[in-house]
Specification:
The complex is a heterodimer of chains A (about 300) and B (about 290). Chain A is mainly alpha-helical and about 300 residues long. Chain A is about 80% helix and about 0% strand. Chain A contains 13 helices and no strands. The longest helix of chain A has about 40 residues. With about 290 residues, chain B is an all-alpha fold. Chain B contains 12 helices and no strands. In chain B, helix 3 crosses helix 12 and helix 5 packs antiparallel against helix 6. The longest helix of chain B is centred in the middle third of the chain and has 37 residues. The chains are: A mainly alpha (about 300), B mainly alpha (about 290). At the A-B interface, helix 1, helix 6, helix 7, helix 10 and helix 11 of A face helix 6, helix 7, helix 10, helix 11 and helix 12 of B.
């Protein structure tokens, strides 16, 4: 089992390397010379030369590439073009808010989704099943940023129940600030996970061991939770991994709407101000996030289902 | 599974499309969403005729008007008619929603068929790249590429094509691998047909069905992504109307009514829902076993 875990970790290394290489290539494809962009059109050639040297653009491409990899590895993202702050410090400041949003929305979404999925599966073809199907169809179709905007307008701007922007300070205040944004993301997540729970549970409930449990006189809730749901959770865990990743991308728009600090809003501000080091750092952080979540899911899978390990 | 579905022969490409069309009109829910979609497409095509006002004409005299008989959805902070902007937004949405997935389908299918047909090291290299792209949610990939390329409609086409192509490649690769082992491919190879000809005339018609299903579902995603990117200021640039930038303008307008936001959001939701429902229906028709997933 540990060998499998180790091989998954080793697998993630070339992936990360390739992602970093793509980021490097993409940043070099950017239209215009960063030094010119930074100094404006009226800069003298000498000034531009000095700036290129400062940015490390004067050395051959392969040296730039190696330096780029080394910097990414040591979390040295340079200084912001806009306010000369250390970009690594900006990331450190923003990342906890994005993680907090991801965790809270995943919790709310999952806690709502699994009972809904069970309800749909146990009342298959009845009103409850159709109601949850309607709910999940809505969840797939309504864009999260639209839902976020509606929540903001209704509960923050009109009713004044929730804050209009910011991330809050201290645990209670932070939970208060994260609640509405998390609901916007959790809705979509719940739509996805409840469908997954339903279909997975339906499949398990048709199995022989469930029939046996019922035949032995097990009470229905016990049969469903002990025998059914436990075995149905494996695909749900995989789905949860996918939905964490989609939450991560959704968080960009949600942070933007609710004026929350976070890697997403940092990235968007960076794009608006053409702050290349910030854009680059934002992309790398998101990419690392994706690789780590995928890796964690792979490893979790090995532990939940020992057959995965045995089969390889 | 119905007996008819069991008995259905492997249809040719033409047969698939006709079969899909007939089955869609038989189911009441599918028919409803098909009509919704046709309506949206007509609105997009005839936007010039339908829209009551020029969507980019600004008027300082009619800023932030509430909904009225002249302006059904009111006007925005530049005095532009919101209804007209939403009508033109349909054009932006559908143009991108169809162009990017279609391009992605062509490029992705080409890579997928090559990987699935040849196998070996070619497959391993393409597969490795696919794994990496597939690890990223399409929206995140879109934001990241848009961050690098810059905003704008055609950049968005590039962004979404790059984000979607691996999704098509994966399906095409898997389908090709299963078709590749069929006897008629062996026969085609034995009869001396050239490889490109086998791919085009024997492989492609047999994997077209699964590509069409994926295409419908990714159009829905493309419409949503266009809206999201435009909302973030990374997509369609104002004054050109897009449902996403209407919501952006609406949120940025402190003195405006919420109607532009509500209406533009409903337009996105309805369009995405219609494509999703039709995509599901098409999948059910082609693969009846998947019906209850």
């Amino acid at each position: 089992m540990w060998r499998l875990v180790a091989s998954r970790v080793l697998d993630a290394i070339p992936t990360m390397l390739l992602v970093l290489t793509l980021v490097f290539v993409a940043m070099r494809l950017l239209p215009g010379d960063p030094a010119v962009t930074l100094l404006g059109d009226h800069a003298t050639p000498a000034q531009i030369e000095a700036m290129r040297a400062r940015l490390g653009l004067d050395v051959p491409l392969w040296q730039q590439y190696l330096r780029f990899l080394w910097n990414a590895l040591t979390f040295d993202f340079g200084k912001s073009f806009v306010n000369s702050q250390s970009v690594a410090a900006m990331v450190a400041l923003n990342l906890p808010y994005t993680i907090e949003l991801t965790i809270v929305s995943t919790l709310i979404g999952t806690i709502a989704a699994i009972p809904l999925g069970v309800l749909a599966a146990t009342h298959r073809g009845k009103t409850a099943d159709y109601a949850t199907r309607l709910f999940s169809l809505a969840g797939f179709a309504i864009p999260d940023f639209y839902l976020g905007a509606l929540l903001l307008i209704t509960f923050s701007l009109n009713l004044g129940w929730f804050p209009i922007n910011g991330g809050g300070a201290g645990f209670v205040d932070r939970m208060y600030h994260v609640f509405l944004p998390a609901i916007a993301l959790a809705f979509i997540k719940a739509a996805f996970v409840s469908r997954l729970t339903r279909s997975s549970l339906l499949e398990v409930l048709n199995k022989d061991f469930v029939r046996t449990a019922r035949a032995k006189g097990g009470r229905e809730p016990r049969v469903i939770y002990r025998h059914g749901l436990r075995n149905a959770l494996l695909p749900v865990v995989t789905g949860l991994g996918l939905s964490i990743l989609s939450t991560l991308s959704g968080s960009v728009a949600i942070e933007f709407i609710f004026g929350r600090p976070g890697v997403g809003s940092m990235l968007i501000t960076g794009i608006e101000t053409r702050d290349y080091p910030v854009i680059q750092a934002g992309i790398i952080v998101f990419a690392m996030f994706v690789v780590i979540v995928n890796l964690a899911m792979d490893i979790l899978y090995v532990f939940i289902d020992p057959r995965v390990g045995a089969a390889r | 599974m119905t007996p008819a579905a069991e008995a259905a022969p492997v249809p040719s490409e033409r047969g698939v499309l006709v079969q899909i069309a007939i089955s869609l009109t038989r189911d009441r829910v599918s028919l409803f969403f098909l009509l919704v979609l046709i309506a949206i497409v007509l609105v997009a095509i005839f936007a010039d005729q339908i829209a009551p006002y020029d969507p980019i004409a600004q008027s300082l005299l009619s800023i932030n008007l509430p909904p009225s008989a002249e302006h059904w959805l009111g006007t925005d902070q530049f005095g532009r008619d919101v209804l007209s902007r939403i009508i033109y937004g349909a054009r932006t949405s559908l143009l991108l929603g169809v162009t990017a997935p279609a391009l992605a389908a062509v490029i992705g299918t080409a890579f997928g068929v090559i990987a699935g047909y040849f196998g070996g090291w070619i497959d391993r290299i393409i597969g490795r790249f696919l794994d990496i792209f597939l690890a990223f949610p399409a929206l995140l990939l879109g934001i990241l590429i848009a961050a690098a390329l810059g905003a704008g409609f055609w950049n968005m086409v590039v962004v979404l094509t790059v984000a979607f192509a691996p999704r098509f490649a994966r399906i095409a690769r898997a389908s090709t691998m299963s078709v590749r082992s069929e006897a008629f491919i062996e026969a085609a190879i034995a009869s001396g047909l050239r490889t490109p000809s086998i791919m085009l005339h024997h492989i492609l018609p047999n994997i077209a069905g699964s590509i069409v299903v994926v295409l419908t579902l990714w159009i829905a995603t493309a419409v949503r992504l266009e809206a999201t990117l435009s909302f973030l200021g990374l997509g369609t640039q104002p004054p050109k109307a897009s449902w996403g930038n209407i919501i952006r303008d609406g949120l940025g307008n402190l003195f405006g009514s919420p109607w532009p936001i509500v209406a533009a959001g409903l337009a996105i939701t309805l369009t995405v829902l219609a494509f999703n429902m039709l995509g599901d229906a098409v999948r059910d028709i082609l693969d009846p076993e998947a019906r209850d997933e």
